[in-house]
Design a protein that fits this description.
four-stranded antiparallel β-sheet; six-stranded parallel β-sheet; about 575 residues; 23 helices; alpha/beta; single chain
Length: about 575
């Protein structure tokens, strides 16, 4: 079996495709279940965030695995396979490991170095464990990925190289002005009460806004977040909660609105936004040309199609890693993000944990977000965005930040006079032009070292059942010969029999020691997988015995593995 990942992200697909392909929690569950039920796959896990959807599987056939995984992604995302295929990428074996480790370190994120991906990888592993879709390979891979991500954040300065997606988005809204200067005294509306929305509220409070209104479909959660903001001793912000149906009225009063919910449709339409601006100014809102820079998202070249009915151009797909790391902005420290790793992106709470989390625990999580916002500094020479193009565009009356996927705010708002909208698409354009951080190279070296170590460990583990089966066979042979000797020499006393047993054991152990140690060393090297086959052939080992040893090892791993 071999590791395979098929997916799409902001690097391979435009936001319009990512938005339509976004998976709900129920869709993720069904996708994982259908993948492990498919013939080529033995294990599976899905990693779905606001800017990537990736399906990981342990497959026995490469081309059949790619065909099956890409078809399943298309079925569950609702985007046709023909339309989805040009945006998919494929990584196999060591390249798949390299990809996940790079993702865990934030190298493949829209904001390079952001740490929230660690919580999302943790959620992905937890879902796989809950569904029993992950076995030894996937557990080892994702747990090691989490360790690599934490190591990158603790051993390098990648955290200091940039900022989180929230602070990066606010910097884009400020358009070259210091965020604290821009935010001071403004009134803010935060739609949603999940991880991103809570971080946005904490960041806005630290930046000096005068008022924060929190709207959420579950009013109690909005009220709880507002109370925590009010109780903070580090800010003077006044916060209050409102139900979702009050959003149109509050939008009329707000200077800036941040939205990140789990809604599948628009939360703020262009008409609602225009009405809010008209309510502020008393004049109709005109439409103007969309003056955003047309950087675009690079598309993979090459036609679809492959042998064995594989829908992807695998020659192009395997030509290199998707680790580009163009942006110099990075995220929060992994240790800080661990404090709210149970939260789910897009403003919803992990349903597996919601029933067990107390209001006090949620207060601690949001306090941690506020403390993080206080500690994360800015590096103006790296982060200052370019001024917004278009000299004829009037000064904004309303600033909008959309961090949801699929989007919460109608993209048509870009064309409304008096409105400045920053969304995932414009953040991707801005981050693509940011200069490279020096620490990225150091993180890449960490990833390369960890990929080599993971591969060696997996190859060594692959031969262990064969070595155990060989020693089991030798022990059986010894036991049979000693029993035969006992029958032929009944007059030996117990001391003599003990000496004979020890002598035979020592001879067999000495004969097997050097070859088994050496074969483990050789198996850990690249291309070492064939040594297990050679050992089975040379000693005529029973394949079922080897398989039973492997199952026993997996069973022990599962019992010892922490939940």
């Amino acid at each position: 079996m071999s590791l395979l990942v098929v997916g799409l992200s902001h690097r391979s697909a435009p936001v319009s495709v990512l938005e339509r392909a976004a998976l709900t929690t129920d869709a993720q569950v069904k996708l994982v279940q259908d993948t492990v039920a498919a013939e080529p796959a033995a294990e599976a896990a899905v990693l779905a965030t606001c800017n990537r959807i990736e399906l990981y599987a342990d497959v026995d056939k490469f081309h059949a695995g790619v065909a099956e995984l890409s078809t399943l992604l298309a079925q569950h995302s609702g985007v046709g396979l023909d339309e989805l295929t040009p945006h998919l990428y494929v990584h196999y074996e060591d390249r798949a490991v390299h990809h996940l480790f790079s993702v865990a370190c934030g190298l493949d994120s829209m904001v390079v170095g952001e740490g929230q991906i660690l919580g999302q990888i943790k959620d992905s592993l937890a879902l796989g464990q809950e569904l029993h879709s992950v076995g030894r390979l996937m557990n080892d891979l994702f747990q090691q990925g989490l360790r690599v991500g934490k190591r990158a954040h603790s051993e390098t300065g990648i955290d200091r190289a940039g900022q989180s997606l929230v602070t990066f988005g606010l910097a884009q809204l400020a358009a070259g002005t210091d965020v604290e200067t821009w935010a001071k005294g403004r009134k803010a509306l935060v739609i949603g009460a999940g991880s991103m929305s809570s971080l946005a509220a904490a960041t806005l409070a630290r930046a000096g806004v005068a008022e924060i209104v929190v709207a959420n479909r579950t009013y109690a959660r909005a009220e709880r977040l507002a109370q925590i903001l009010n109780d903070s001793e580090d800010t003077d912000v006044v916060a209050r909660a409102v139900p979702m149906d009050s959003v149109p009225v509050e939008l009329t009063r707000a200077d800036v609105a941040v939205s990140c919910t789990g809604a599948t449709g628009l939360v703020l339409t262009a008409d609602a936004i225009a009405a809010a601006v008209e309510g502020r100014t008393g004049a109709p809102v005109a439409e103007i040309a969309d003056d955003r820079p047309a950087h675009g998202i690079p598309k993979p070249a090459g036609p679809a199609g492959n042998d064995e009915n594989c829908p992807l151009d695998l020659t192009a797909a395997q030509s290199g890693f998707s680790v580009m790391g163009e942006a110099a902005v990075a995220g929060m420290a992994a240790a800080e993000l661990e404090q709210h790793a149970a939260w789910v992106d897009n403003g919803t709470v992990d349903i597996r944990e919601a029933g067990r989390r107390t209001p006090e625990a949620e207060a601690e999580l949001i306090d941690a977000l506020a403390a993080t916002a206080a500690r994360v500094g800015r590096i103006p020479e790296l982060r200052r965005p370019e001024p917004v193009a278009g000299f004829d565009r009037p000064a904004p009356e309303l600033f909008l930040l959309d961090l949801a996927m699929p989007r919460d705010i109608d993209a048509a708002a870009h064309r409304l006079a008096g409105v400045r909208l920053v969304d995932i698409e414009s953040l991707a354009e801005a981050s693509a032009d940011a200069p490279m951080a020096a620490d990225v190279d150091q993180v890449r070296r960490i990833v390369a070292d960890e990929v080599a170590a993971f591969g060696a460990a997996q190859r060594a583990a692959h031969i262990t059942p064969t070595v155990v089966a060989l020693r089991t066979m030798a022990a059986d042979v010894m036991a049979g010969e000693i029993a035969r000797l006992d029958g032929r020499l009944p007059d030996l006393d117990e001391r003599q029999r003990g000496e004979i047993r020890q002598a035979v054991h020592r001879v067999v152990d000495k004969l097997l020691h050097a070859p088994t140690v050496r074969v483990k060393q050789l198996a850990a090297e690249p291309g070492g997988a064939g040594y297990a086959d050679a050992l089975r052939t040379l000693f005529d080992l029973d394949p079922e015995t080897v398989a039973s040893v492997s199952r026993a090892v997996d069973s022990t791993d599962k019992k010892d593995r922490p939940e």
